[in-house]
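Homework help board

Subject: predicted structure for assignment chain

Our instructor gave us this sequence and asked us to write out the predicted structure in token form, then describe one feature. I got the tokens but I'm not sure how to describe them. Can anyone check?
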Amino acid sequence: MKKTIAAALLAAIAPAMSVAGEGHSHWGPDDQVGAANMITAESVLAASSLITTGKTYALGMIIDDKIPAFPPRKLGLTIVQPNQIDSKGHGPTMSSYNDDVFSGWLGIGSQIDGLGHVGRAHEYYNGNKGADFAQPGGLTKLGVENIPPIVARGVVLDIAGLKGKAVMDAGEVITSDDIKAAAAAQKVELRKGDVVLLHTGWLSLLTGDSADPAKYGGGEPGIDPAAAKYLAELGAVAVGADTWGVEAVPFAPGAGVFEAHQVLLKDHGVYILENMVTEELVADGVSEFLFTLGVTRLRGAVQMMINPVAIR
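My token output:
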């Protein structure tokens, strides 16, 4: 599975990439927060008014060691019972417990890409040079501990439905025109400060009788760099999809290697949300909702597994 993802990427790698904007922050030379600076007390109160039914949606997928992951990522989980060998339990009530030991990569399953994840020629968000902050023991800048609580208006756009498909095709490009058309069809306006999720149907390849993990990891539908720039310039705080990488793989014609990642993360400080579970929102006809996410504050981490919650 992981080799399949690697093969798809290697086949799509272009020999050279064009250099875009400088990517310096609108919020000053020391900024490490990026587009999340747009979240304010006023914007949170406005987003909370979207709650009409109180129904909640888990946007994170259940993960295990069989979930396809970008190579060479993997994880392992071991359950142990410390200090309980030959013991009936601790104390007069014979208390016993299980503990867990995790080993693996943090960019598996539903995840957020922090601003230190993808750069261009080893330069990252706000002009930070990789050699200055990317240390083996953790990033000294742009780590996920800097991500504030993301509470915002969320919008999900049914791109698969717009194209009359249950599941889009690998490499099928979502353009800015597609985004505009889906928003118009759903009668929803994209606004500054939004979290924008794109539904492609791709995550369904991991569930049910028609599950095809090899196809899931062999490519994906997604945005191109121009669509990434369009969403960033609209003022999105984060952009996500029900795919493992959000952008089209094989990469869109003329696009560089994960160039949409560069546009969002490096150039605009917009967070990327991967493997978002959007199916239930779309099935319920939901277009906008309250989006909530608190990221585990592991100092120096590049990415983090997440389970955001949508509330309608």
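Reply (TA_rk): Your tokens look well-formed. For the description, you could write something like this. Residues 32-68+105-311 form a domain with the Glucose Oxidase; domain 1 fold (CATH 3.50.30.50). That's the kind of observation they're looking for.
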